[in-house]
C-alpha cells in the first residue's frame, strides 16, 4: 500500500532532502548516513541535537524565518527493512543471497542465478553487430515450415517443462536455513548429467528466469517457449534462462517460438547475451554477445483465440566455449529486484566514507508485498549548504 499524502517525507529546513522518521530505533537512525550494520550508535542523538542547535542559532539571528512545518514523518511500517541488519563486512555474493531469500516470489525458486549473485556486468569491450544473411534466414524459415507440416518426422522431446515441475511441487522452498536459496554452479562445472544422453539441461526457476518449456527438435536444436510477465498473458520478448550439460565447439540452435513483436533488434544487428560460469572462474566474468545466423520472422504458430494472428520466432546459432559448463542466456543485461536491493545495500555501506548523503525509505509495497524503495541521494548536511529563506 502506497503512502498517503500526509505521510510523504517532508524536507526540513536544515537539509532539503533530510526526512524525519517517527518512532525509529537508534539502530536504524544510523542508516541515514548509509550504515546498515546490526550495531546501534548512541551518538546519532547527539548529532541531531547539534544540528538543531545550529538551526536554532540561525533562526534566532533575525535574518531567517522558520518555514518548516511540523511533519508526522513516516510510520514505523514505512521503514525499509529489506536490507536492514546485513553487516557491511559481508561479501556482495553473501549479501545478495540473504536479500534474495527475503524476496516474495510468485513462482517457486530453486536457486539464485550466478551472474546476479556476483553482480555480473558486460565485458566492457566493444562488440561487433551481427550482419544479417537473408539466405540463412530464408533457409531457417523453410525448415520451420517443414517441421510444422511434417512433425512426425522430427524429434519432439520435451526436456524442460515448468508447468510439470510446478504441478509436481518439487524443490519446495522452506524456512530451513540449510535449504535456503543459494548457488552451486561452480560445483557443477565439469560434471556430466546422469545418463548417456547428450541433450542440454535447462533451468529457469530463479529470479527473472522466464523459460517455460524446452523441446528438442534436432540433435542440437531446441524450440523454446517463454513465460509471460506476471499478471499478463503476453509480453513474450525478453528471456533469461540457464543451460548446462553441453559439448564444446559444437553448433547449437535455439528457436524462441512465441515472441509477439512484429519486428526485433535481432534483425538489425543485435546479438543475445551469454554468461559462462567457467569463464568467470578463470577470471573473465561478464556477459558477452554471441551468436551467428540470427533471424527473426513470423512462424506458423497461431494464437488459440485469434485465428489470423501468429507468433514470431527469434533464432540464433552458437558454440559453447567450454564443455560441461553452466551458461546463462539473456535478451539483455538482467537486473533483478534482489540485485537492486543488494546494490542499494552496497551504496549505504560506502556512504559513511564519502561526502554523499543516502537514505532509503519504503515508498510502498508490490502486490506480492515486496518493498519499493524511495532513495534519497544528496550532500551531507553542513552549515555551508543550509536551505535558507531571506526576509
Largest sheet: 6 strands, mixed
Query: What is the level-2 CATH architecture name of the largest domain?
Result: Sandwich
| N-to-C series of helices and strands | HHHHHEHHEEEEEEHEEEEHEE
Number of domains: 2
CATH topology title of the largest domain: Immunoglobulin-like
Radius of gyration: 26 Å
Low-pLDDT ranges: 1-74
- How far apart are the termini? 41 Å
Strand portion, in percent? 15-25%
Pfam family, one: Pepdidase_M14_N
Domain Cytosolic carboxypeptidase N-terminal: 202-331
Region (Disordered): 29-69
Cofactor: Zn(2+)
Task: Write a structural description.
It comes from Bemisia tabaci (Sweetpotato whitefly). Residues 29-69 are annotated as: Disordered. Residues 202-331 form the Cytosolic carboxypeptidase N-terminal domain. This protein is α+β, with helices and mostly antiparallel strands. The chain folds into two domains: 5-105 and 339-385, no CATH class; 114-335, Immunoglobulin-like. The protein is built from nine helices and 13 strands. The protein has helices at residues 26-29, 43-60, 92-100, 114-117, 134-149, 162-168, 185-188, 277-281, 337-350; strands at residues 157-161, 201-203, 211-218, 221-226, 240-244, 251-259, 273-276, 288-289, 292-302, 310-319, 326-330, 356-365, 371-379. The strands form three sheets. Strands 1-3-4-6-10-9 form a six-stranded mixed β-sheet. β3 (211-218) and β4 form a beta hairpin. α3 packs across α9 (337-350). The longest helix is centred in the first third of the chain and has 18 residues, at 43-60. The protein is elongated, with a radius of gyration of 26 Å.
Amino acid at each position: 500500500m502506497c503512502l498517503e499524502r500526509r505521510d510523504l517525507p517532508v524536507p526540513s529546513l536544515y537539509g532539503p532532502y533530510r526526512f524525519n522518521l517517527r518512532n525509529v530505533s537508534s539502530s536504524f537512525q544510523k542508516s541515514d548516513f548509509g550504515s546498515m550494520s546490526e550495531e546501534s550508535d548512541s551518538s546519532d542523538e547527539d548529532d541531531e541535537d547539534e544540528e538543531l542547535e545550529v538551526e536554532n542559532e540561525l533562526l534566532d539571528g533575525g535574518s531567517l524565518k522558520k518555514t518548516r512545518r511540523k511533519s508526522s514523518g513516516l510510520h514505523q511500517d514505512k521503514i525499509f527493512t529489506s536490507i536492514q541488519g546485513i553487516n557491511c563486512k559481508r561479501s556482495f555474493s553473501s549479501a545478495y543471497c540473504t536479500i534474495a531469500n527475503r524476496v516474495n516470489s510468485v513462482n517457486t525458486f530453486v536457486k539464485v542465478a550466478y551472474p546476479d549473485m556476483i553482480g555480473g556486468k558486460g565485458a566492457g569491450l566493444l562488440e561487433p553487430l551481427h550482419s544479417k544473411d537473408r539466405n540463412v534466414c530464408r533457409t531457417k524459415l523453410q525448415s520451420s515450415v517443414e517441421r510444422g507440416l511434417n512433425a512426425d518426422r522430427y524429434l519432439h522431446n520435451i526436456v524442460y517443462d515448468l508447468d510439470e515441475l510446478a504441478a509436481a511441487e518439487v524443490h519446495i522452498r522452506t524456512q530451513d536455513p540449510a535449504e535456503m536459496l543459494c548457488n552451486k554452479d561452480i560445483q557443477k562445472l565439469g560434471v556430466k548429467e546422469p545418463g548417456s544422453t547428450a541433450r542440454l539441461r535447462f533451468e529457469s526457476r530463479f529470479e527473472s528466469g522466464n523459460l517455460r518449456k524446452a523441446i528438442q527438435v534436432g540433435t542440437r536444436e531446441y524450440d523454446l517457449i517463454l513465460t509471460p510477465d506476471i499478471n499478463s498473458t503476453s509480453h513474450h520478448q525478453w528471456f533469461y534462462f540457464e543451460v548446462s550439460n553441453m559439448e564444446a565447439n559444437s553448433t547449437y540452435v535455439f528457436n524462441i517460438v512465441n515472441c509477439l513483436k512484429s519486428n526485433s533488434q535481432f534483425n538489425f544487428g543485435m546479438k543475445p547475451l551469454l554468461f559462462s560460469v567457467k569463464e568467470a572462474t578463470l577470471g573473465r566474468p561478464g556477459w558477452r554477445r554471441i551468436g551467428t545466423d540470427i533471424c527473426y520472422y513470423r512462424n506458423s504458430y497461431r494464437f488459440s483465440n485469434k485465428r489470423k494472428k501468429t507468433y514470431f520466432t527469434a533464432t540464433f546459432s552458437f558454440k559453447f566455449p567450454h564443455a560441461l559448463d553452466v551458461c546463462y542466456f539473456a535478451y539483455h543485461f538482467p537486473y533483478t529486484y534482489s540485485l537492486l536491493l543488494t546494490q542499494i545495500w552496497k551504496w549505504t555501506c560506502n556512504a559513511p566514507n564519502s561526502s554523499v548523503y543516502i537514505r532509503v525509505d519504503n515508498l510502498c509495497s508490490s502486490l506480492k508485498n515486496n518493498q519499493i524503495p524511495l532513495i534519497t541521494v544528496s550532500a551531507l548536511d553542513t552549515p555551508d549548504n543550509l536551505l535558507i529563506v531571506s526576509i
